[in-house]
Amino acid sequence: MRIDVWSDVVCPWCYIGKRRLEEALAASGDTATVVWHSFQLDPSSTNDDPRDLATRLAEKYGRGRDWALQANAQVTDIAAEVGLEYHLDQAKPANTVDAHRLLHLARELEEAGEVPAETQGRLKERLLKAYFTDGLPVGDHATLTELATEAGLPTEQVREVLASTTYTDDVAADQAQALAYGANGVPFFVIDEKYGVSGAQPVEVFQEALRRANADRKPVTLITAPGATTDGDAACGPDGCPI
């Protein structure tokens, strides 16, 4: 099974959705290849914004600071229900394009067999924890280099990517693909290119999507004539056609 996920590393619901998906997979016993795709919630954000998260949210949505603080407290409580520890008062502003470019590097190296499987997933997890729990600046190159190396990427290749514009087009392509699927927000999950789950839905929703995907992948039941075999007497195969 393959699960494609669009998310941002500064999206609180994306981290929660990741945990709920993982819980659903664990409960079902399914194994899946999870591929992480880029989606920037705010491509115009900067790494040197002096405002804290509550102020930025209040101004973005035209609401008061008290509303933003309450919203942060609510999502922090929900995160705690899935075992996550949020410190949104310490969250540093960040443009996440470079974090996403490193996630593309991780995926490419993983597919080439140059790093172990799940390296991209480890980097994704580390970036989310860095922002939401550790209060680290995930737009800072020195921080990104340390986090990516910790996740298993070669330090020199990380530095080369950060010093260039490599994978910038891939980040944009991911965002365009999400919009083509009809995803205007994240997280957005696509299972086996057929079943979509929008948002950090309850675990039961993920379980149902996994169940449907598994049902589609079950082998068909063969119907034969009485006394006939089921090994392709009247069918052509890799070794030719029986006459």
TrEMBL record:
This is DsbA family dithiol-disulfide isomerase. The keyword Isomerase applies. It comes from Kribbella pratensis. InterPro entries: DSBA-like_thioredoxin_dom (IPR001853), Thioredoxin-like_sf (IPR036249). Pfam families: DSBA. Coiled coil: none annotated. Keywords: Isomerase. GO terms for molecular function: isomerase activity; oxidoreductase activity. Residues 3-210 form the DSBA-like thioredoxin domain.
